[in-house]
Design goal:
With 300 residues, the protein is mainly alpha-helical. The chain has 11 helices and no strands.
Length: 300
């Protein structure tokens, strides 16, 4: 019976495995992540009504929400299956959030064997900071969303009625949440680049004004509608987080072990070389012959 049992290969402590083993592991982790998302979608469908009321609240705060039915917040849809797909989309949003610990862990467990010990420590730290930053950005987007919608809808012409479709509104909410959440991660990326040695604090300080200007341009371009309130609400926290990232980079480089600093040199300037005080005509190791050997002249 022992001969019929398949021997399990010893696990490499460094996480190395053949290509087929990598593919099998990837398949298994994808199946687990997909199963978790499906369970989350079911949970999202069960709790659809309170979540939809929460998502719809910013629009209901605008005056245009009561134009079709006075005293009642109304959104429209224009297809037989559209309401079903909207329900499925919202349930998918809830499912991704509910199942995020599972699929994030599956990604982490698949990538971990390829990382060094210090990289694992840094990645766990950054993951623990990135999630609250994303949530903070999304929460800020939700808070200002009603004011932003009021500004955008205030440009409606006289004699017109705003009939906002459900799908259009859901897309607007998703874009706002994603843009604000991802934008709050940019300062964290700067700190990460500084830790791995790609970006120095001197470089960040040198281009500070340009970066602040680019943040305002970025806020004006990526926000839906481009109204000034949304642009300022996105650019101002990003600037604050940028200064915090710069402070972290400064403190980190200040506390780093002392060594040669070439940050003041330009890209085209050569770094200083070590001074060699040996004579020019001093013999090199290749010129010296081992003891007991005869030179070419003695052989002749």
């Amino acid at each position: 019976m022992a001969l019929l049992k398949r021997s399990q290969p010893a696990r490499d402590p460094e996480g190395r495995m053949p290509l087929m083993e990598h593919l099998r592991e990837l398949r298994n982790r994808l199946v687990i992540a997909l199963a978790a998302v499906i369970v989350g979608i079911i949970i999202g469908y069960i709790f659809f009504d309170p979540v939809w009321a929460f998502v719809k609240e910013p629009f209901c705060e605008t005056p245009q929400a009561n134009q079709l039915r006075p005293g009642e917040c109304t959104l429209t849809y224009s297809g037989i299956f559209q309401s079903f797909f909207i329900t499925l989309k919202v349930s998918l949003m809830i499912g991704l959030v509910v199942a995020s610990p599972v699929w994030l862990y599956q990604i982490w467990a698949f990538v971990t064997p390829a990382l060094y010990r210090n990289e694992k420590r840094y990645s766990l730290t950054f993951l623990g900071i990135a999630v609250p930053l994303f949530v903070l950005g999304a929460a800020l987007a939700y808070i200002i969303m009603d004011t932003s919608l009021s500004i955008l809808l205030s440009f409606s012409l006289d004699g017109t009625v705003a009939t906002i479709g459900i799908d259009e509104y859901i897309d607007y909410v998703l874009i706002m949440l994603l843009i604000f959440g991802i934008s709050f991660e940019l300062p964290l990326i700067l700190v990460f680049l500084n830790i791995i040695g790609v970006l120095s604090h001197t470089t960040v300080k040198k281009h500070r004004r340009t970066v602040i200007f680019v943040m305002f341009v970025f806020g004006a371009v990526v926000t839906p509608g481009g109204d000034p309130l949304t642009m300022m609400a996105l650019a101002a926290p990003m600037i604050v987080l940028y200064f915090l990232a710069e402070l972290v980079m400064f403190l980190r480089e200040r506390s780093a072990p002392a060594g040669e600093d070439f940050s003041h040199l330009s890209d085209d300037e050569a770094s200083p070389l070590a001074e060699d005080t040996s004579p020019v005509d001093a013999p090199t190791p290749l010129d010296e012959e081992p003891p007991g050997t005869t030179s070419g002249a003695d052989k002749r």
